[in-house]
Write a structure and sequence with these properties.
- The protein is an alpha+beta fold and 577 residues long.
- Among the domains are: 124 residues, no CATH class; 102 residues, no CATH class; 60 residues, no CATH class; 49 residues, no CATH class.
- It is 43% helix and 14% strand.
- Helix 9 runs parallel beside helix 12, helix 9 packs antiparallel against helix 13 and helix 14 packs parallel to helix 15.
- The longest helix is centred in the C-terminal third of the chain and has 28 residues.
Length: 577
């Protein structure tokens, strides 16, 4: 049964009587990062968004949703494990403050409750196609954008790969592992049918079995496994058709082998197996990709954030997770409707050269967003041909003349005056083709759009042409999602999305916290002044260090000394100072 957690509004939250804090520590707690987290994140969680997850009117009341959701975000903020999170919830006063707990007597949810809640989120997403946690992300982020007056008319985005937390299966090991997992779910009667076939595999793990194989044995082993897969399929029939493990078995069989018309089994060549084939039975949605020689199995994350010059605060306003074999431009095109819905003022998007393409261009035109590419993948042309869109199609300009383009059966063409071309110094390098009375340029529409896109950066002021670069730092902030092996701590597209969304909220909060700390700092103009005379005893320590650093610099320049740390200057060297 759904019930809101509003107790933290109805009493003196964080009162000293609740935690027994003395006055001095109580004041420090109110300035802590955790208390700001309570204000900016916990207190702004709308629990009613998650009411569809629970049966109304009957059953036990749910655990406090805002506390569990805040705990998920707090874990990403601290880059800690669940074990470390719950240890802090049990014994750390500040952690309990962050998620709205007012005393040390109890914790309203245990690890199992939190994990079951995440399962509900994943299941609801799969059944209804609605990610409730994503709606929470946009709710909190939209509130921050409004309260801090963030201008979202200019944005930038980038993508990064996130490897799933799965073992690196080779082809033979994957086939053996799937067989072993299928064997475990079989009834006793069905196991007897296949014991004689799977005997060599069921006596050990897939890792141990492959370890004993030599490279020369692999072709023979693949052929043998192909025959075994078909035989198992014939024996079991459709008995386990609804079981997910059996469905994985069927999927692998169709991806790795082909049953010929004469009943024989052909092992598919490696190049026939797509990047979307099963990479691990633990994560059926993970895909394969290779970039810069590095092979990765998992997902790709697209991040969009505000980038308008003059913003004191820039926030991540959209994140999405998709299989890592999806093109960057496709990912952004899929998200443009969502981004525009939540930031309708968007009119300029900065990306790198990997985003451009026929999929994204129509979306940018639909939403009237200028797509600014940095590092375009178009090669440098021998002659600068400028393509421009018109109501009828395109027009093309060279250094001496302009011509409208017309559509042919498969492409576009533009005809140029032969007499003018004859006087052009670039004639030998010109991409046009000499005809009887004219010179003609043939081009594909994709090339024209790429050319137009590459010139968009020239349409904006110089100071806005390098805005995209800082999104690399934002991408780097997501490394806290990964374990020591550089992999996500979870598996599956839905769970990976939950973790990335929680991380994005944590990053946004950290930025807000840094801004608020900056605003709360008292002004200290004396710290930036030169101190040539005696230093008063009331001068702050930071000003003293500035003076010592200046003195050390003068000494190095004058006497060509080795660098001296201002923290270790001998008192006798200071003289009257």
């Amino acid at each position: 049964m759904f019930r809101k957690n509003e107790g933290h509004w109805q009493r003196d939250l964080f009162g000293r009587e609740n935690f027994g804090l003395p006055e001095s520590k109580y004041k420090k707690a109110l300035k802590s990062k955790e208390y700001r987290f309570y204000e900016e994140v916990f207190s702004r969680i709308d629990e009613e968004m998650f009411e569809p997850l629970f049966v109304s009117g009957r059953g036990r009341p749910n655990a406090p949703l805002n506390s569990m959701l805040a705990a998920m975000i707090l874990r990403e903020l601290r880059h800690c494990t669940y074990e470390e999170l719950f240890r802090s919830l049990d014994f750390d006063v500040l952690t309990r403050m962050a998620i709205g707990l007012t005393d040390m007597s109890e914790t309203p949810f245990c690890p199992a409750t939190l994990f079951n809640f995440q399962d509900r989120l994943v299941r609801y997403d799969r059944e209804h196609g609605t990610n409730l946690f994503e709606e929470l992300f946009h709710s909190i982020t939209g509130n921050l954008l409004k309260r801090f007056g963030v201008d979202a008319s200019i944005q930038r985005c980038d993508s990064f790969r996130a490897m799933s937390n799965i073992a690196n299966y080779g082809r033979v090991r994957l086939l053996v592992e799937v067989l072993l997992r299928l064997y475990r779910i079989l009834k006793a009667s069905d196991r007897k049918k296949v014991d004689s076939i799977l005997g060599p595999y069921t006596s050990q793990s897939s890792d141990n079995y492959v370890y004993r194989l030599k490279p020369a044995d692999l072709p023979r082993e693949l052929s043998q496994l192909g025959a075994i897969y078909v035989r198992i399929f014939q024996l079991l029939g459709k008995t386990y058709a609804e079981d997910s493990v059996y469905q994985t078995f069927r999927r692998v069989m169709s991806e790795q082998f082909e049953i010929c018309a004469d009943g024989s089994v052909r092992v598919r060549k490696a190049k026939e197996i797509g990047s979307g084939s099963l990479q691990s039975p633990d994560d059926p949605e993970a895909t394969f990709s290779a970039k810069s020689g590095k092979k990765q199995k998992g997902y790709k994350v697209n991040v969009a954030e505000t980038a308008t010059p003059g913003n004191e605060l820039n926030l991540i306003n959209d994140v999405s997770v998709q299989p890592n074999n999806v093109h960057d431009g496709t990912m952004l095109a899929d998200r443009m409707d969502v981004i525009k819905e939540h930031t309708p003022e968007l009119n300029e998007m900065h990306t790198d050269g990997g985003y451009g393409g026929s999929v994204l261009d129509p979306k940018m035109s639909e939403h009237e967003v200028l797509h600014v590419e940095t590092g375009s993948k178009m090669g440098k042309a021998r002659v600068n041909m400028i393509y421009e869109s018109t109501d009828d199609g395109y027009q093309v300009s060279c250094p001496l003349q302009t011509s409208p383009a017309g559509r042919t059966r498969k492409r576009w063409k533009a005809d140029f005056n032969n007499e003018i071309c004859g006087e052009c110094s670039h004639r030998e390098q010109c991409p046009t083709v000499q005809r009887r009375r004219k010179r003609t340029l043939y081009f594909d529409e994709s090339w024209a759009k790429a050319s137009i896109r590459s010139r968009n950066i020239e349409l904006i002021p110089e100071e806005r042409r390098k805005l995209r670069a800082n999104v690399e730092a934002t991408v780097n902030e997501f490394t806290g999602c990964f374990n020591h092996k550089g992999k996500l701590r979870v598996r599956g597209l839905a769970r990976s999305t939950l973790q990335i969304l929680a991380a994005a909220l944590a990053i946004n909060f950290a930025r807000v916290f840094r801004l608020r700390i900056k605003e709360d700092l008292p002004s200290t103009p004396r710290q930036n002044q030169q101190h040539d005379g005696p230093i008063p005893s009331s001068t702050p320590l930071s000003a003293l260090l500035v003076t010592l650093r200046a003195f050390a610099t003068k000494m190095r320049v004058k006497k060509r000394l080795e660098p001296i740390s201002p923290y270790h200057i001998n008192e006798s060297a200071l003289g009257h100072t």
